[in-house]
């Protein structure tokens, strides 16, 4: 060994055991902290999505009009508020009355559905299983865990809106604060990764809203042609719940089928087929077109992430599991896959 080459430190067996133990203890502490604060991380993610939406819309307005960034941002926020207020003013009373009517008639809808199911042997078996689930003690525990969040539903929405407002108004303060935690030699790389995360979430949101609008329009047209009662409310429910992959469309189909059962079982079957066809069209044509430049997430991976994240955080985990999975995929690609590819090329 050359004299000027420093020798590697030699550790005894006991020191190596302590080092390994400390590493595993640190990993365990990080995992416990992550589990304890995961609800809060989901809320921060939801607020970040609001900021991505308004910032992305602001950049689109700025690109089309050449306005300044502040005017474009103000236009995007005020424009969305006015559009939402206009929608509520135009159809808010109708939707509110239909929702109230649906709540009043929901027990009757369930009874009609059970009577229709009892008309066949398969239906009687399904009805029997539903009665067992309803009478068991597992259902209330599951529902309470499913809808349980950190600060309660209203508190969570309030926190999400506050975080979204602060991130929208001054995102660079928080981004620069995160970058400063990185060693100076890696800050340019960190800026690039954060920029790709924001672009990915913005494109995902844009594609999602396009798909939600398409599902709402197609469902409204189909239900209106069929002459279904409460067709507008059911179409809005279908469009909004389409934000949640896999479970959202199924949840939207249930009230539509129950309402259709008040007409006759054939109508209920047609409604179920129509909802399935719309979702198939949305998942195979609209969403791929809207998100063609986005990272493709395997459908099974989305379901797995919804199950795991939903078990940790309840309903918020089900809703925001997909953008969380998108963030993880981008981070893995940027921090592991690309460096490994560069290393293999050498």
Automatic annotation (TrEMBL):
* TM region(s), chain numbering: 17-34, 40-61, 73-92, 146-174, 205-225, 231-261, 268-287, 307-332
Keywords attached to this Swiss-Prot or TrEMBL record, sorted alphabetically, are:
Membrane, Transmembrane, Transmembrane helix
InterPro entries according to UniProt: AI-2E-like
Would the keyword Calcium turn up in this protein's UniProt record? no
Please verify whether the record's keywords include Calcium.
no
Where in the cell does this protein reside? Answer: Membrane
Instruction: From the UniProt annotation, give the residues forming the signal peptide.
Output: none
Report the membrane topology from the UniProt record. Answer: Multi-pass membrane protein
Q: Which Pfam families match?
A: AI-2E_transport (PF01594)
Provide the primary localization.
Answer: membrane
Highest taxon of the lineage: Bacteria
Annotated family:
Belongs to the autoinducer-2 exporter (AI-2E) (TC 2.A.86) family.
Protein name, entry field: AI-2E family transporter
